[in-house]
Amino acid sequence: MSKRHLILILCLLTVGISTLLTWSRNTKDEALNANEGKVEYIIGVSQANMREKWRVALVEELEKEIQGYDNIRIITTDATSSVEKQKLDISHLMGFGIDLLIISPCDEKEMTEKIKEVYDSNIPVIVMDRAIEGFDYTLYIGPDNTVIGQQAGNYIAAMFDGKPGKVLELQGNNLPIQSEERSIGFASVMDAHPEIERSVLKLQNESKDSAYDAVLAAGEELKEVDAIFAHSDYIALGAYEALKNRGLENTIAIVGSDGFKEEDEGIDLVQSGRIEATISCPIGAREAIEYAMDILKNETGVPKQVILRSYTITQKNVENYLDKMNATYEDSGRKIVVGYSQVGQESQWRLANTNSIQTAADIFNIRLLLEDANQSQERQIEAIRGFIREGVDVIVVSPVVETGWDEVLREAKAAGIPVVMSDRNVTQEDIEEDLITTYIGADFKEEGRRAMRWIRDNVEPDKKQMKILQLQGNKGASPTEERQEGFEEVLKECPEYKIVYSDHGNFTFEGGQKIVREYLNQYKWDIDIIYAHNDDMALGAIEELKKHGIKPGEDVKIVSVDATKAAFLAMIEGELNCAVECNPVFGNQLMKAVRDLVSGKPMPFKIITEEKIYDESVAEDMIKLREY
Ligand code: AHR
Predict the structure, then answer these.
(1) Residue 349 Cβ contacting ligand 1 at under 6 Å
(2) Is the CATH code 3.40.50.740 the one for domain 444-582?
(3) CA 410 – CA 42 distance, rounded (Å)
(4) Within 10 A of 604 (CB to CB), how many other CB atoms are there?
(5) Higher model confidence: residue 137 or residue 172?
(6) What confidence tens digit (pLDDT) does each residue in 517-571 have?
(7) CB neighbours of residue 188 within 10 Å
């Protein structure tokens, strides 16, 4: 048995014993009475295992974070990678009377039901690291592994600088989803660089030894390789040592991922020059404890998902990165000024969104300078320049289209004014430029997937191929592009359905009407399903169909996105069959982020709002609760 294995076993035993001791010694009352009776909340932490570095680090960081709070106590359990043990651990934690659960699941699918059980029993649940399907949890916090892969790809592509070369990707297989996502992100960048030849080596497991053996075994082939993307810093270290053994350590550049600070971890490897760069995989303990407190205190502004930001750490920027991570922050208490460029007033959703942001600005005592762009990118750019001249504290933009923003965003950056994207996002030429501080809004791709999943599960094909008419939003807007992408992702798996006609209705009632009218002018009505990118277009289509004697909801099934009051009304009438929610009421989350940003807190990559999916069966109940 190797020394490393022995240490691992000792660690496991220690954690197991300490967990048992915690159980036997404590009752909830004892825990609450601890610390001179100041403890108000007990947080249960169910960790999947205490073997993987990342997971051990999460527990350690959570412990460190709560040092700043007298009123929290945490109890940690180690599921030793067993789903059954994790379920049991959670039952114990619930029996103990925890006030909130933080879970890093062993397996996101198999733990979904248990997490739902906790959530249904009114114990808030924060899921970390791996997202579960559905909505039955309070908040998810985790990294975006696809972006991590893209960042590695961008760094390596910049290193090659257009010259031909070879890159070797070393994949671990302990966390298949994580590895798959990193690989997808990396490949997406490499695909855009045909001059770089990419080959992949799947390792036996995610360990330094496994990487060492595999790289050494690659033999002569290595001489052709210019760079390695290692899916973790352990793999990077194993690869480095194998290269050193072959005398190639100075000719092949390595990019790893994780970015821990200890000896032989990513930061140390970068600082010592053993690897070129590491892409940080953030842990999120600080965010977990801060949001846990907000949830326990019933604060407003808690989102559904927080996607953490990863950084490309190189020798050049490592000191800056460490300073940024160690920075302290405080709320200055002064009145914050926000310049806000809203896209327009095209839909019911938009009006509710503007209203939510204005109301929240008042609640948070923030001065809001609102500019309505009336769907014009030029007007938005002009407004942003105006905000820069005014010297506002933060600029918030809901951009009409995804592209064409880099120049004006650089101007804001040069003026030292952070920019937050609200509701819609933009694509940047180079993500490392950090032109956007964070994005707050929906997961449009997921909305598209949900729409198609609903069709697949509820609209039984009565012929060989069901025809879908798609009503798209504005061309080039992120909800349009991503709702289509997500929808098509699920559609690909369902050959019985096909999109036969698509057109842009620009998210307006008239736009939806016009598309149906034009279709009917050209063809005999043969559509089985309408997929509308928003309610307003679906409602316009419904009106037009009725004029032509086609019964919406019956002759043609209709699914739309937004789930406004008008959509529920249409569902009650039986004219709309399903509405996928896109939540416009995130003003509080936005203003909370603005306040945090001004006080110097590091921002997550994305803050995603809570959204559900509704059909006719719940419309009567839901309409009573809908304000917009
Ligand atoms: O960006 C969000 C979309 O914009 C909404 O779904 C739509 O109704 C809107 O106008």
Answers:
(1) yes
(2) no
(3) 45
(4) 25
(5) 137
(6) 999 999 999 999 999 999 999 999 999 999 999 999 999 999 999 999 999 999 9
(7) 13
What's the pLDDT score for residue 580?
98
Statement: residue 6 has pLDDT above 60: no
**Is the whole-model pTM more than 0.90?**
no
Q: Under CATH, domain 3-137 is a member of which superfamily?
A: Response regulator (3.40.50.2300)
State percent of the chain over pLDDT 90: 82
Confidence of residue 308 (pLDDT cuts 50, 70, 90): very high
Cα gap 538→525, rounded to integer Å? 16
Q: CB under 8 Å to 299, separation ≥6 — which residues?
A: 293
Fold match between 146-280 and 444-582?
A: yes
Q: Is the pLDDT of residue 4 over 60?
A: no
- Rounded mean pLDDT of the chain? 91
Q: How far is the CA of 349 from the centre of ligand 1 (A)?
A: 6
pLDDT level of residue 36 (50, 70, 90 thresholds): low
For 56, counting Cβ atoms within 10 Å of its Cβ (0-12 exposed, 13-18 middle, 19+ buried), the class is middle
Residues 127/146, Cβ–Cβ less than 8 Å: no
Using CA atoms in the order 563, 569, 574, 578, what is the torsion angle rounded to 10 degrees? 10
Residue with the smallest CA separation from ligand 1 atom 3 is 479
Does 399 sit in the ligand 1 pocket, CB within 6 Å?
no
Residues 446/447/450/452 CA torsion (nearest 10 deg): -110
Averaged pLDDT, 383-397: 97
Report the SS3 class of residue 495. coil
Asked whether 350 lines ligand 1 (CB < 6 A), one says yes
Domain locations in the chain?
3-137, 146-280, 336-442+585-610, 444-582
Please spell the DSSP secondary structure of 238-285, one letter per residue: HHHHHHHHTT-TTTSEEEEEE---STTSHHHHHHTTSSSEEEE----H
Compute the distance from residue 361 Cα to the ligand 1 centre, in Å.
Answer: 21
Q: Does the C-beta of 579 come closer than 6 Å to ligand 1?
A: no
CA 585 to ligand 1 centroid distance, Å: 12
* pLDDT value for 5: 42
Q: Is 347 in the pocket of ligand 1 (CB under 6 A)?
A: yes
Q: Which one, of 532, 626, 601, lies nearest residue 329 by Cα? A: 601
Q: Is the CB of 274 under 6 A from ligand 1?
A: no
Distance from C-alpha of 26 to C-alpha of 118, rounded to nearest angstrom: 21
CATH level 2 (architecture), domain 336-442+585-610 = 3-Layer(aba) Sandwich (3.40)
Residue range 146-280 forms a domain whose CATH class is alpha beta
- CB–CB of 282/310 below 8 Å? yes
Place of tokens 């500019």: 371
Give Cβ neighbours of residue 430 (< 8 Å, ≥ 6 apart): 154
Question: Closest Cα partner for 536 from 556, 506, 516, 578?
Answer: 506
